[in-house]
Amino acid sequence: MSDTRRLVQAPADPANLVIENVRILDPVNGIDTVGDLVVRDGRIGGSPDGLERIDGAGKVAVPGFVDPHVHLRTPGKEDCEDIASGSRAAAAGGFVTIIAMPNTQPVTDGVSIVGSLIEQAERQAAVRVGFFAAITMGQEGTTLTEQGELTDLGVCGFSDDGRPVESAEVMRRALQYQRITNLPLVLHEEDMSLSGAGVMHEGEVSTRLGLAGIPGISESIQVARDAELALYEGGRIHICHVSATETVAVVRRAKQAGVRITAEVTPHHLLLTDERVADLDAARNKMNPPLRAEADRQVLIEALIDGTLDCIATDHAPHRSHEKERTFEEAPFGVTGLETAFASCYTHLVKPGILSLELLVRRMGADAAAAVDLPGPSLTEGSIADVALIDLDATTVVGADGFQSKSTNSAFLGEELSGVVDLTIAGGQVAWRK
Amino acid sequence: MEHRSLLSIADLSGDDIRRVLTTAQRFTELLGRDNKKVPTLRGRTVINLFFEASTRTSTSFELAAKRLSADVINIKGSGSSVEKGESLKDTILTLNAYGPDIFVIRHKGVGACHLASRFTDAAVLNAGDGKHEHPSQALLDLYTIEREIGSLDGMHIAIVGDVVHSRVARSDIMAMTAMGAKVTLVGPPTLIPWKAESLGVSTSYDIRDIADADVVYVLRMQHERMGAGGFVPSLREYATRYGVSHARLRPGQRVMHAGPINRGVEISSALADDPATLIERQAANGLVVRMAILYDLLVEPSVVPGPATMEAVAA
Q1: Number of DSSP helices (H) and strands (E) in chain A, helices first
Q2: Which pLDDT does position B229 carry in this prediction?
Q3: Which of A160, A226, A315, A373 is labelled catalytic?
Q4: Burial tier of A208 (Cβ tally within 10 Å: 0-12, 13-18, 19+)
Q5: CA-closest candidate to residue A351, choices A417, A398, A410
Q6: How many CB atoms within 10 Å of residue A245?
Q7: Does the pLDDT of residue B281 top 60, yes or no?
Q8: Total-model pTM
Q9: What is the pLDDT of residue A1?
Q10: pLDDT band at B311, cuts 50/70/90?
């Protein structure tokens, strides 16, 4: 595995504190116990003597979360989000590591832009921030980016997220070139000829509303193609935001066939359906891939539990409110997610008993890191502290106290959710304190 | 008082629809008089905001509001600040400053009226939002059928052609089925929406299946909304297989079309000119039904205007 990847964080004093009488839940190490969690000089463990004491009674301390799919809108759309606000939103959601997508303006497709982003992150990032660079120049799908140099500079992988690599030949070249970079190709999967002008899931609701639909097979067909290519070339691919029943079947078959493939699913696809689009509110309900039918949602949950889908990623996609205050077809795709990911999944999956808390913590932490070949967070003695302290019983109304993100286009806006992140320690530094 | 809006036929119960149709009947009687104007909406302001081309709908809404003595402002997309890039939100906020009672809006975007209603306390009447809905058309279609043929309950209506792109079809399907009619969609598979049966209709790809229908409702082929999709191989093949003409009708079947028509495509020129179709009646009834909708949204909705009201009006 390459060790060139850079996860960048602004320097700050190392955390020195002890969380007392807290439930310590570390799935990777098989720990679920009540006790004191000591963080000394930014590392797990050591002597609690002289440290600040935090009451953890009734709360749970878990390894912080990892999000391999966020849009920090930098460069070019810093009015929607920048590295400071996006990483603060991440910290508020219990994330300790996030990877930014390269569909920026201009596209993050060269060493000068990546270099600039790393410099900005060194000054601004509240949590560890990594960067994916584009697979193709300008994400235009024709010419590969200088992936060797970009790898040396420290990118975490390559993605044309926001759009697919339409040409199978170009995708094949990228998979071949991957033997130099050893970094994952992170794929937004969509057959654009099938998606067409679609703006929501093709189903009964789109028929009722007269909105052009994006069928599930638009996603699965492209995944099937890339799984075939990856198998042929021995490549390593990660599939972004799986949304459709058909895609789950394709991913499952690919894994059985030995393809080096991982896949993610977003909280909104796990929790919401196309019925919501009936209110035609693009700010909450328009994203790509679209919210699908209840049957798809059930399949996604099942696949997350059995591991066909490896992890949860937010696809945090901030937009200014005036961009979203347009008719459904005109408004841009995307909803935010960093600040609500845990609480929404905890409220709607763990509390009703569909998913265990332990599995949710895995899928948002260690599994999310592994899905893009990054080392995962744990509470192992001596390791750099990556901790989220969560009050599971506390509730919050989404957006009532504003957002850390610069944007408000949350799919869960106005909903009451359980599970409030009180404290996030990322990279051994206190990144968030409520 | 907060106004009610009409964004979708789904906003109306069967009773609501019946009330509007009854009100339209009263206005029809009234329009038989020499003085066709009533003071019902005197002092009220109606803003017609048409971002998309329209002849029938914009004219009939304007005239309907004038017959009801409202102050009427007509704004078209071209020639307004919309051409300078003003957003729908800002247009509504600006016009809202003049204190209108209702916005009548046509827009190319699905949900434009839903969006507009978030920025004003005035009533919003959907006069066509993209491929979504056109509720006033559906109500005038119901009125036309009941007036010219008879009760919708149990009637069989075949809707023929480009259903995918048709807001008229979507509103008509909801309105007609709500009133007890049986609806069959007939057209090529590429122009019948996915899982259309979920709308409570049956579907057929064979034009001969219009034979059972009491009413054949012909939809316009909407070239302008099709893009490069290639929904049908050619208009020629479409006209041959699905074009409605005298030869495809049996005696007694009535033909409707919301207009504008494409002669020789979805309807033969001879049929379009046949006075036995209901096409002109639809246009004429558009006026009284739109008067009835404005009345219903802006005046005490539970009161159907009775003869006494009308006498007072005439005085």
Answers
A1: 15, 18
A2: 59
A3: A315
A4: buried
A5: A417
A6: 20
A7: yes
A8: 0.93
A9: 44
A10: very low
Tokens of B314: 């005439």
Instruction: Tell if the CB–CB gap between A327 and B109 is shorter than 8 Å.
Output: yes
Task: Residue B50: count other Cβ atoms within 10 Å of its Cβ.
Answer: 22
Q: Would you list the DSSP string of A222-245?
A: HHHHHHHHHHHHT-EEEE-----H
What is the enclosing helix (H) or strand (E) of A392? strand A387-397
Distance between CA atoms of A204 and A214, rounded to whole angstroms?
12
What's the sign of the alpha-carbon dihedral B199, B203, B207, B210? negative
Does A209 sit within 8 Å of B114, measured CB to CB? Answer: no
Q: What is the mean pLDDT of residues A360-368?
A: 98
pLDDT of the residue at B80? 74
Distances (CA, A) of A420 to A417, B84, B250, B267: 8, 46, 69, 63
Encoded amino acid at A217, one letter: I
CB B259 within 8 A of CB B154: no
The number of angstroms, rounded, from the C-alpha of B162 to the middle of its chain's C-alpha atoms is 16
Tell me, what's the ipTM?
Answer: 0.89
Query: At B9, which helix (H) or strand (E)?
Result: none
Percent of chain B with pLDDT over 90: 79
Cis peptide before A332 (omega within 30 of 0): no
Q: What's the CA gap between A301 and A213, in Å, rounded?
A: 23
Tens of pLDDT, residues B189-231: 999 998 999 999 999 999 999 999 999 999 999 876 665 558 8
Q: Which residue of A has its CA nearest to B107?
A: A327
Joined tokens for residue B192:
């019948």
Reading the block at residue A321, the tokens are 């409110």
Distance CA A141, CA B218 (A): 44
Specify the DSSP class assigned to residue A4. -
Are the Cβ atoms of B195 and A196 closer than 8 angstroms?
Answer: no
Residues from chain B that touch A330, judged by Cβ atoms under 8 A, are 109
Going by pLDDT thresholds of 50, 70 and 90, the confidence category of residue B78 is confident
DSSP designation for A413? T
Task: Give the number of other CB atoms < 10 A from CB of residue A94.
Answer: 33
Give B62's pLDDT tier (boundaries 50, 70, 90).
very high
pLDDT (tens digit, 9 = 90+) per residue, A369-388? 999 999 999 999 999 999 99
**Number of CB atoms found within 10 A of residue B312's CB:** 11
- Residue A315 bears catalytic tag: yes
Is B128:B60 a contact under the CB 8 Å cutoff?
no
Please tell me if residue B149 touches chain A, with a CB cutoff of 8 Å.
Answer: no
Distance separating alpha carbons of residues A266 and B48, to the nearest angstrom: 42
Give the alpha-carbon dihedral of A289, A290, A292, A298, to 10 degrees: 50
Q: Do A328 and B195 touch (CB under 8 A)?
A: no
Q: Shortest Cα distance from B313 to chain A (angstroms)? A: 40
In this structure, is the dihedral angle defined by the CA atoms of residues B222, B228, B229 and B230, taken in order, positive or negative?
Answer: positive
- Using CA of residue B233, residue B235, residue B240, residue B243, what is the dihedral sign? positive
pLDDT value at residue B227: 57
A42 pLDDT above the threshold of 90: yes
Q: Flag whether pLDDT at A407 surpasses 50.
A: yes
CA A243/CA A297 separation, integer angstroms: 8
Is A294 in the B-facing interface, judged by CB distances under 8 Å? no
Whole-angstrom distance, CA of residue A32 vs CA of residue A60: 10
Query: What percent of chain A is predicted at pLDDT more than 70?
Result: 100
B134-169 burial, b if ≥16 CB within 10 A, otherwise e? bbbbbbbbbbbbbbeeeebeebebbbbbbbbbbbbb
